[in-house]
Recover the amino acids of this structure.
């Protein structure tokens, strides 16, 4: 009886230590924990992949991603979206947030239970130096992160998702203090 108890205890300790070693299930999700930011340069590269509209850019702003426990938040509290038009441009300030739950196993990040909110200010057109509100409704939303393979090493997080076109694209984030 004592031998069975010791064997069961030893087996449990081996299982627990396997989860704590690099590459174990507990370690995999722990690398994600914290705050991450996508630089404006990487954000514009992602935008070109997702929304291949000539002249569309984000001249100011970043994307943020936070992992806490099994929850995540992805979004931006403010960025400027701009579309070049003949003799000028259209721009709007935008913010959005997607939150939900996530899991990480075997190098795959899975997002679920996602809820998105967004706010886009009135579009303003600047043409030949004249400023006017753009008529009509223009709605642009950043897609929620898609589940897919990821790497998380030190201060770098790369998540591979699929664009609406079916092409893979990388979301590159840097860890924030």
């Amino acid at each position: 009886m004592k031998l069975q108890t010791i064997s069961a205890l030893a087996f449990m300790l081996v299982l627990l230590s396997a989860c704590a070693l690099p590459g174990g299930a507990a370690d995999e999700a722990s690398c994600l924990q914290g705050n991450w930011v996508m630089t404006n340069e990487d954000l514009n590269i992602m935008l070109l992949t997702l929304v291949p509209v000539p002249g569309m850019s984000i001249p100011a702003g970043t994307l943020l991603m936070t992992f806490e426990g099994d929850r995540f938040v992805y979004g931006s509290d403010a960025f400027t979206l701009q579309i070049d038009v003949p003799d000028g441009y259209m721009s709007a300030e935008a913010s959005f947030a997607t939150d939900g739950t996530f899991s990480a196993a075997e190098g795959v990040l899975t997002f679920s239970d996602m809820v998105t909110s967004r706010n886009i200010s009135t579009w303003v057109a600047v043409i030949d130096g004249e400023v006017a509100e753009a008529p009509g409704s223009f709605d642009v939303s950043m897609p929620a992160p898609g589940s897919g393979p990821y790497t998380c090493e030190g201060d770098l997080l790369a998540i591979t998702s699929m664009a609406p076109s079916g092409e893979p694209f990388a979301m590159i984030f840097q860890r924030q203090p």
